Amino acid sequence: MQRAESSSAEAGPSAAQGPADRRPGSDSEAGSDPRAPESGTAGGDTVAAVVRQWRAVHPGLDTGPMEVIGRINRCAALLQQAEDAPLRRAGLSRPEFDLLGALRRTGHELTPGDLARETFSSGAAVTKRLKHLTERGLVERRGDTRDRRVAHLRLTDAGRDLVDGILPDQLSYETAVLSVLAPEGQGELATLLADLLSGLEGRMGALRA
Prior knowledge:
- The chain is mainly α.
- Helix content is 63%, strand content 5%.
- The chain starts with a helix and ends with a helix.
């Protein structure tokens, strides 16, 4: 999460962050004003401006993918920069809360490796966060009787109470953040993002090759 935050924020409206559908033979290519938003495109956000700039520089390219990926990246950066008020009041970062949440929702002990996979984090990042959470008395570790290198982690009573106390406030906060969309729009967006995530999780290995 923290790495994603810095990369998204630094990337800003880059080539991967700004879209408009622009295909060879389109009106824009024929000589219309490249700064004008294309039909069907939200023209008032940051990404729309970036897309118009790219369309002026490379009028023959299909910049449609930027429209989706650019807005996802921009939304992620803004959400991360906003910080989560309930978590901040509890002295937790979002990545730390994700670790506590993973231990709470799975309902059983997890190893650091398990937590890294559950939270999409690196092993080093998980180790650092666990140290802080353990020092706060929110997480406790138990050594493996067969392998001293393995640690099993679980929430303390204080950690469980903290997660259960924060979660309703956190969900209310996120509801307020999403209130810019109508409920039916939120449902449609959730479905589209689920389809995208499912497809990417199945294909990213092939795309990297």
